[in-house]
């Protein structure tokens, strides 16, 4: 089994599309009510669905990049604002936090080997 995609609700599709393109994602499906992006590396995709009602998705989406600090600086230069700049967390990931234009929480991070093999990993078998 493999995760296909995650879909986030958005309030304004053109603004959301612009935001995610600024982050560096490639638009591969574009309709007024649904869009999908391919991540710059790998085969992962994620999508946006237009929601006309108020919502609080409560979802956090993580995007990994080994050059996290440089990526954050580049995004700041493009006007992206962060709620938290890159910070070393107690669970051994380095994370920056931002909100998209619809208040979906996005974490940009680098975990290296600790993403799949933290010191407290259990035996998956």
From TrEMBL:
<dbReference type="InterPro" id="IPR037523">
    <property type="entry name" value="VOC_core"/>
</dbReference>
<dbReference type="InterPro" id="IPR004360">
    <property type="entry name" value="Glyas_Fos-R_dOase_dom"/>
</dbReference>
<feature type="domain" description="VOC">
    <location>
        <begin position="2"/>
        <end position="111"/>
    </location>
</feature>
<dbReference type="GO" id="GO:0046872">
    <property type="term" value="F:metal ion binding"/>
</dbReference>
<dbReference type="InterPro" id="IPR018146">
    <property type="entry name" value="Glyoxalase_1_CS"/>
</dbReference>
<dbReference type="Pfam" id="PF00903">
    <property type="entry name" value="Glyoxalase"/>
</dbReference>
<protein>
    <submittedName>
        <fullName>Glyoxalase</fullName>
    </submittedName>
</protein>
<keyword id="KW-0479">Metal-binding</keyword>
<dbReference type="InterPro" id="IPR029068">
    <property type="entry name" value="Glyas_Bleomycin-R_OHBP_Dase"/>
</dbReference>
<dbReference type="GO" id="GO:0004462">
    <property type="term" value="F:lactoylglutathione lyase activity"/>
</dbReference>
């Amino acid at each position: 089994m493999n995760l296909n995609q995650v879909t986030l609700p958005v309030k304004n599709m053109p603004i959301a599309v612009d935001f995610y393109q600024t982050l560096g994602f490639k638009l591969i499906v574009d309709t007024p009510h649904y869009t999908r992006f391919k991540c710059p590396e790998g085969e992962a995709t994620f999508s946006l669905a237009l929601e006309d009602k108020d919502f609080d998705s409560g979802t956090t989406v993580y995007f990994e990049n080994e050059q996290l600090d440089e990526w954050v600086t580049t995004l700041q230069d493009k006007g992206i604002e962060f709620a938290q700049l890159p910070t070393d967390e107690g669970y051994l990931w380095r994370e920056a936090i931002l909100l998209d234009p619809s208040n979906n929480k996005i974490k940009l991070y680098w975990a290296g080997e600790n993403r799949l093999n933290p010191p407290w990993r259990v035996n998956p078998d």
